[in-house]
Specification:
Helix content: 40-55%
Structural class: alpha+beta
Length: 554
């Protein structure tokens, strides 16, 4: 069996253990957030990945029975669904690439528009939507998630795999920078490990049980990080081509079973509210955790009081005939007693109306803290007016705007860059010879045209509309003031802000041709009118209208 002869495996396991220690102080908070929302996603924080999945299911079932109100998970679902719809809607294009020259470089921008349109279709034709939504749900509950992006399987362009947050440990190679170091602790059966890495690359302890216990589970650590020069040597050309190194190590033997690399960091790790001085983050649900804990306890006590209110509370006297320890009451049962006073009902204390009011207040507070009350669709009452709807959209934009800025840099940009690189190398968006010469050697920027991105740009559109209206009103008094405004550039900028497809905007050269042709037509028409006017002046009788004799007689 192949064995590693260097200490890379031991070094990676040592760094992995250090990363586990760094995350340990945050785990109680994360476990509590999952316990009151989605226990199945949080039970893994207390178990090894090699644990039998049935154990996870049993623990999650036990925790689920301790949840007495569904307000918190429903609010988390609402926030996650709105983020998903606002960030990466499957039914409309939500990103685009443009050159640094903007709309002037029409040929390059049109190629980029066609490439990104095809890329958008390929992303959503893959398995993106399901793991992306679950990832955002993790982000709402725990503050971050890890989405692994790689080449497609089964004829799909890409494959997206949401790594269990409990098994992910993060780091950053630059202080305050994005997450670009990850340790992923996962489990494979002996049979899966042999298929994945090859039986000849497995440690002896796994190779020995491969035939007898192929379903036995074994833990591995996958480390992905930026390459660093070793022993003062520069990176080779091949290493620079793949600037991220990858090692997969069996945890017990500390043997490297696979070594590879990546062109881009393959794991997208967005964070909701970054903790100062840490690579980890907190979630919007963490702010609503105290109210959720209180609500859960109030509902538990309310249900206990409801049980007493429905079933009744009874008192009994141990008079030698009636034994309170063995008595059982119920329908069609006889209770033997010496006298009527030996067994009597009790009036339970407490005020259920107070509990009901407290529950309602806590539910509203949870939704308000998580902004779920503003994100929900108004299904009751009359339809919203256009003014009310516009106000609500602006309010949602203000609520989600700060978080959306971080999601742009840590989620959407690396996601699109990774998919674009995979598609370009695979020839899915054209061959290298198809790239326009005007695009070669240029930097191009990513533009977000998702609903939430467009909502953020509505202020610029509204400002332009107000200025244009004022300019048109002023131009009626002073026509020269219209020269202050570049109408062509303004309309192009407004089209970009509103997300108008590039192929609907006429090319600058064609605009010049159309305007030249229109001016020539106007000149010809004016010249023809002058000729007709001159002829009419010289021969007025010839230009007079001719009237039929029969019509005059009539």
């Amino acid at each position: 069996m192949a064995q590693t002869t260097d200490s890379r495996g031991a070094e990676i396991i040592r760094q992995f253990n250090d990363a586990k220690s760094d995350r340990a102080p945050l785990e109680p908070l994360i476990r509590e957030c999952y316990r009151l929302t989605f226990p199945m996603r949080g039970v893994q924080f207390s178990q090894s990945p090699a644990t039998n999945p049935n154990v996870f299911a049993q623990q999650a079932k036990a925790q689920t029975s301790d949840i007495y109100d569904s307000t918190a998970p429903d609010a988390c679902n609402t926030v996650a669904a709105n983020f998903m719809a606002g960030l990466t809607p499957p039914n409309s294009k939500w990103f685009n690439y443009q050159t640094g020259d903007g709309a002037d470089n029409s040929e390059a921008n049109r190629w980029l528009d066609e490439a990104t349109t095809a890329l958008h279709g390929m992303i959503h034709a893959s398995n993106f939507d399901a793991p992306a939504f679950e990832g955002i749900l993790d982000c709402v509950v725990a503050g971050m998630f890890a989405l692994y992006v790689t080449e497609g399987r089964d004829n799909a362009p890409f494959h997206f795999d949401l790594w269990e947050l409990a098994n992910c440990y993060f780091g950053a190679s630059r202080r305050g920078g994005p997450v670009d170091i990850i340790f992923y602790n996962y489990a494979l059966t002996a049979e899966q490990a042999a298929n994945e890495f090859g039986a000849e690359n497995l440690p002896d302890r796994i190779a020995k049980v491969l035939e007898k216990k192929p379903q036995s589970r074994h833990a591995f650590v996958w480390c992905i990080r930026p390459r660093q020069p070793k022993n003062g040597k520069r990176l080779t050309a091949k290493e620079r081509l793949m600037p991220f190194e990858s090692f997969q190590v069996e945890t017990i033997s500390k043997q490297v079973v696979r070594e590879s690399g990546f062109h881009e960091f393959p794991v997208v790790v967005p964070r909701f509210n970054k903790i100062p001085g840490s690579v980890y983050a907190t979630s919007p649900f963490a702010n609503a955790l105290p109210d959720t804990q209180t609500l859960n306890e109030v509902k538990r006590l309310s249900l206990a009081g409801l049980d007493m209110a429905i079933s009744g509370m009874w008192g009994a006297v141990d008079d030698g005939v009636l034994n309170p320890k063995t008595i059982r009451i119920g329908a069609r049962k006889i209770v033997y007693m010496a006298q009527k006073e030996s067994f009597f009902p009790l009036t339970p204390g407490g005020n259920p109306q107070t509990a009901a009011l407290e529950v309602e207040d806590l539910r509203k507070s949870i939704r308000r803290v998580m902004n779920a009350d503003m994100l929900e669709t108004q299904n009751e009452g009359p339809a919203e007016t256009a003014t009310a709807w516009h106000y609500r959209v602006n309010l949602i934009r203000q609520l989600l705007g700060p978080s959306y800025g971080r999601f742009q840099s840590e989620y959407l940009q690396p996601l699109v860059a990774r998919c674009f690189g995979i598609a370009l190398r695979a020839g899915l968006i054209g061959k290298p010879g198809d790239i326009p010469d005007s695009l070669k050697g240029q930097h191009f920027r990513l533009q977000y045209i998702s609903p939430l991105a467009r909502a953020q740009k509505l202020e610029d559109v509204a400002a332009m509309d107000r200025f244009e209206q004022d300019l048109e009103a002023t131009a009626q008094i002073r026509p020269e003031v219209a020269d202050l405004y570049d109408w062509d550039t303004a309309k192009k900028r407004k089209a970009q802000l509103l997300g108008v497809p590039v192929d609907l905007i006429v090319d600058d050269k064609k605009v010049v041709q159309l305007r030249t042709a229109r001016a020539k037509q106007q000149q010809n028409a004016a010249a023809q009118a002058q000729v007709q006017a001159a002829v009419a002046k010289a021969n007025p009788a010839q230009m007079a209208p001719r009237v039929q004799i029969g019509a005059m007689a009539a």
